[in-house]
Design goal:
Number of strands: 3
Largest sheet: 3 strands, antiparallel
Organism: Alkalibacillus silvisoli
Pfam families: HTH_17 (PF12728)
Order of helices and strands: EHHEEH
Strand content: 15-25%
Protein name: Helix-turn-helix domain-containing protein
CATH topology: Multidrug-efflux Transporter Regulator, Chain: A, Domain 2
Length: about 60
């Protein structure tokens, strides 16, 4: 897998619906880059973002 992923590839990678990825990107809830009408996602950034989500959920459970 390349470091860059399309919205569909990101949805598949995360196991969510494509609409969820677009919605999260519009709200700037997920790291992405926009090149004209195309959204690109870096696998490294998505992995780091997931780790941040996990850590923040642990902090709120304390």
């Amino acid at each position: 897998m390349q470091d860059r992923m399309t919205a569909q590839e990101t949805a598949d990678y995360l196991g969510v619906c494509l609409d969820t990825i677009y919605r999260m990107a519009r709200k700037n809830e997920i790291p992405h880059a926009r090149i004209r009408r195309r959204m690109l996602f870096r696998k490294r950034s998505i992995d780091a973002w997931i780790q941040e989500q996990e850590m923040s959920s642990l902090d709120t459970n304390r």
